[in-house]
Amino acid sequence: MSITRRTVLASTALAAAPIGGPALAQTAASTPAPAAGSRQAPGFYRYKVGNIEVTAINDGSAPRPLEGFIRNAELSAVQQAANEAFLPQTTIQNTFNGLVIKDGNRLTVIDTGNGDMGAPTTGRWMENFRAAGFDPAQVNTVVISHFHGDHINGLRRKDGTAVFPTAEVMVPAAEWAFWMDDARMNQAPEGARGGFQGARRVFGPIANDVKRFEADKEVVPGLTSIAAYGHSPGHTAFMLSSGSGRLLILSDTANHPALFVRNPDWSAVFDMDADQARATRRRMLDMAASERAQVAFYHAPFPATGHIAKDGNGFRFVPVQWSSAV
Predict the structure, then answer these.
(1) Which of 156, 165, 236, 325 has the most CB atoms lying inside 10 A of its own CB?
(2) Which residues pair with 64 in a beta bridge?
(3) How many Cβ atoms sit within 10 Å of the Cβ of residue 276?
(4) pLDDT for 189-204, tens place per residue?
(5) Does residue 295 contact residue 247 with C-beta atoms inside 8 Å?
(6) Is the dihedral of CA 201, 111, 113, 133 positive or negative?
(7) Please, which residues have CB within 8 angstroms of residue 4's CB and are 6 or more apart in sequence?
(8) Are 291 and 274 in contact (CB under 8 A)?
(9) What angle do CA 289, 295, 301 make, to 5 degrees?
(10) CB atoms within 10 A of CB 79
(11) DSSP state string for 93-144
(12) Mean pLDDT across the chain
């Protein structure tokens, strides 16, 4: 995997993700949190995959400028794609959505949100998790897709307190090998060390207990890891299977569907290996379309689930129809 100084700098801004840090300064500072009384209903949505209940948990969103967000496309093309999707042509809302998998009495969390380390318009994960009827003390396993801060900071509060005190924590072995390598961290430019330091802040106190898994392995019953490298060195997607039900959990394989599903060869600024990320994106989207599997995104508009259809040289995202029944 070819990692450049630029991609490490960009990705570590997300991996560290401190309040006011470069990844979240974006335009969030000029976008205040909603005023009291103007909030939406709690952000959770349940659906079934076979006999397993899945709950999408929203952590809020943060805007970032469209300019510079995609490295290999002209701004005018990006703005046109946004316009065709009836989105603003200056900013994109980066939404954050984790998942809770309830299989009998077992609770598994996949990715934990920004915690109390994100932009003012994020940090909604725990209140939405509790609103959905869950208790962090009841979580059996936390599975992490990769080590960027918006996925791991919800594991540990800024004061160091563990959020899921009794849960087993499982991470991709390739991701651990990259971010927890002291030699690699020490060789990185000063401005690129935030991601390494962020990983140590979250995982350091439990390093001896963190379990690492390889690709193509069953992580917990019904949940299999899929190598989806490129966005980060060990970035991992998952397939959840139960009976005839299948859910392809894309993690950060594609960011906003209006941009990256329709244009899978575009490269997001945080894709550490752009070529590998593009190849991964095409492979995963093609798998979803060919197998007609339901998909779940981390950064798509809430509830961030639906299907993928082939559309010319790209693909099309078809959101699920909302249902009051689970």
Answers:
(1) 236
(2) 92
(3) 18
(4) 988 899 999 999 999 9
(5) yes
(6) negative
(7) none
(8) no
(9) 120
(10) 17
(11) EEEEEEEEEEETTEEEEE----TTSS-TTB--HHHHHHHTT--GGG--EEE-
(12) 90
Per-residue pLDDT tens over the stretch 215-238:
999 999 999 999 999 999 999 999
Dihedral of alpha carbons 281, 286, 291, 292, sign: positive
Report d(CA 239, CA 298) in Å as an integer. Answer: 14
User: What average pLDDT does the segment 27-40 reach?
Assistant: 50
Are 260 and 254 within 8 A, CB to CB?
Answer: yes
Residue type, position 220, single letter: V
So what's the pLDDT on residue 12? 54
For residue 125, give every residue at least 6 positions away whose Cβ sits within 8 Å of its Cβ, in sequence order, or none. Answer: 57, 58, 59, 60, 96, 98, 112, 113, 114, 115, 154
Tokens of 269: 């600024």
Q: Residue 13 above 60 pLDDT?
A: no
Q: Cβ–Cβ contacts within 10 Å for residue 85, how many?
A: 13
The predicted model scores a pTM of 0.89
SS3 for 191-202, per residue? Answer: HHCHHHHHHHHH
Phi, psi of 171 (to 5 degrees): -135, 155
Q: Is 293 helix (H, G, I), strand (E, B) or coil?
A: coil
